[in-house]
């Protein structure tokens, strides 16, 4: 399993406008893109995958499967390389072994992330906050 620091920085995305804004701001240093908690059950594995793929960002995606091992397995099968699953799920240990054998990571808890639902990316202050979270250098347009 990857240590949480290896996954940082992360942002929680909720839709295409946020994703496009994050990728544009981050440039060549894109963050990990975490789904909302339990999104595998609400968006569906395919829905979050489609969002990321439309922006060429599937390798950056981390899908939160909450306590649904079937969703975690489906996510692995469609190309997610990192999935969050509650470690209390009885299948967690065997799924972790399977993920590792496929070169993927099953994560027992979501890494620290900036939830973009709380950031007004259409405002300069919101973009500056995101840039600070991502550790991007200060620029005059985001000062």
Task: Describe how the helices and strands are arranged.
Blueprint: E1 10-12, H1 16-26, E2 32-34, H2 39-42, H3 45-54, E3 61-64, H4 69-77, E4 82-84, H5 92-101, E5 105-107, E6 114-115, H6 124-134
Parallel strand pairs: 1-2, 1-6, 2-3, 3-4, 4-5
Description:
The chain is of the alpha/beta class and 143 residues long. The chain has one domain (8-142): Alpha-Beta Barrel (TIM Barrel). It is 38% helix and 13% strand. It has helices spanning 16-26, 39-42, 45-54, 69-77, 92-101, 124-134; strands spanning 10-12, 32-34, 61-64, 82-84, 105-107, 114-115. The protein has a six-stranded parallel beta sheet with strand order 5-4-3-2-1-6. The longest helix has 11 residues, at 16-26. The chain is elongated and about 50 Å long.
User: Can you identify the CATH superfamily?
Assistant: Aldolase class I
Helix content: 25-40%
User: How would you spell out the order of helices and strands?
Assistant: EHEHHEHEHEEH
Q: Indicate the proportion of strand residues.
A: 5-15%
CA(first)-CA(last) distance: 37 Å
Architecture per CATH nomenclature, i.e. the level-2 architecture: Alpha-Beta Barrel
Low-confidence stretches: 1-5
CATH class: Alpha Beta
Overall residue-averaged pLDDT value: 91
* Whole-number total of structural domains: 1
Q: Major sheet: size, sense and barrel closure?
A: 6 strands, parallel
Which value, in Å, is the CA radius of gyration? 15 Å
Would you count the extended β strands for me?
A: 6
- What structural class results from the helix and strand content? alpha/beta
| Number of helical regions | 6
Q: Looking at the structure, what is the overall shape?
A: elongated
CATH topology description: TIM Barrel
Strand order of the largest sheet: 5-4-3-2-1-6
């Amino acid at each position: 399993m990857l240590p949480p620091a290896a996954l940082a920085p992360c942002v929680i995305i909720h839709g295409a406008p946020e994703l496009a804004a994050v990728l544009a701001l981050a440039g060549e240093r894109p963050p990990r893109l975490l789904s909302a908690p339990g999104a595998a059950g609400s968006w569906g594995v395919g829905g979050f995958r489609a969002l990321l793929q439309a922006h060429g960002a599937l390798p950056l995606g981390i899908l939160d499967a909450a306590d649904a091992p079937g969703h975690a397995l489906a996510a692995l099968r469609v190309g997610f390389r990192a999935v969050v699953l509650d470690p209390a799920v009885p299948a967690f240990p065997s799924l972790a072994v399977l993920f590792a054998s496929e070169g993927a990571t099953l994560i027992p808890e979501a890494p620290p992330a900036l939830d973009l639902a709380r950031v007004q990316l259409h405002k300069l202050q919101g973009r500056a906050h995101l840039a600070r979270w991502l550790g991007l250098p200060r620029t005059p347009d985001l000062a």
